[in-house]
Design brief:
The chain has 243 residues and is α/β, with parallel strands linked by helices. It has 2 domains: 185 residues, Rossmann fold, CATH 3.40.50; 46 residues, no CATH class. Helices cover 28% and strands 32% of the residues. It is globular. It starts with 7 loop residues before the first helix and ends with a strand. The model has no long low-confidence stretch (mean pLDDT 93).
Length: 243
């Protein structure tokens, strides 16, 4: 599966970056992140902010939120969208595992399971270490994660909007390594590209161990609706605090 890996910074470029927003299944709702920031405090940092959702909506509400992403192209798109809305926003270009922003935040969050794109446990541990170091003492981080379903049965599935289309071509899944790579064709008119979308997942116990090794305390493991997550849930959100 190693030959199929693409760095997230390289994945979200070109046609993939252009089709990301129009063809995603759900637009991020800013409300839960606004509630998290309000409860925990400001300033806040969104990791994996992409092209600006929900970051720009949060800034528009008057919240002190900065964004970080490893894809320079997605950040350029976020800047353009911010300019269209006459919003002043601070954006940082860095992978999570290497961020060094020279300040601390009261709240740090991911608005989706972007950490699943980090394919090596050493890099996940490094990302958690950087989150720890960028949190103020007593601050909190919100990290959604999921165990992807086996997409073998979805090969050939198409999502489209106008001239834009994505098609799943192949799936390779390694349960032992906890990785899955889905080869996807992206098309817009006469343009097309094929790229592997590779994910790495953890059990709740595995991620708890990584977080605690980084010096973070697990305050809660929640379902997407905010209730306590079942131990075998496929989707869960870690609420981490810095002592």
């Amino acid at each position: 599966m190693g030959d199929a890996e693409v760095d997230p910074a390289d994945f979200y470029t070109g046609l993939v970056a252009r089709l990301y927003a129009p063809l995603r299944s759900v637009d991020p709702d800013p409300a839960p992140y606004a509630a998290f920031i309000t409860a925990v405090g400001q300033p806040a940092l969104e990791l994996g902010c992409g092209d600006g959702d929900p970051l720009l909506d949060l800034v528009a509400q008057g919240l002190d939120v900065e964004g970080l992403d490893s894809s320079a192209e997605m950040l350029d798109r976020a800047r353009s969208r911010a300019a269209e809305r006459d919003l002043a926003v601070t954006l940082h270009h860095s992978p999570m595992e290497a961020m060094d922003l020279g300040r601390q935040y009261r709240s740090i969050f991911l608005a989706g399971p972007t950490l699943n794109l980090v394919l090596d446990d050493a890099l996940v541990a490094a990302a958690l270490g950087r989150i720890h170091d960028h949190l103020e003492p007593g601050g909190s981080a919100l990290i959604p994660l999921f165990v992807p379903e086996d997409e073998t049965d979805r090969i050939g599935e198409v999502s489209e909007s106008g001239t834009m289309r994505i098609t799943r071509l192949a799936c390779e899944r390694d349960e032992e390594a906890q990785r899955q790579a889905v080869v996807i064709r992206y098309e817009d008119g006469d343009e097309s590209e094929e790229r592997p979308w590779t994910l790495h997942w953890h059990t709740q116990d595995q991620f708890r161990s990584l977080a605690e090794a980084a010096g973070l305390t697990v305050a809660a493991i929640m379902a997407p609706d905010g209730r306590q997550a079942a131990p075998d849930a496929d989707q869960f959100v870690f609420w981490l605090t810095k002592p």
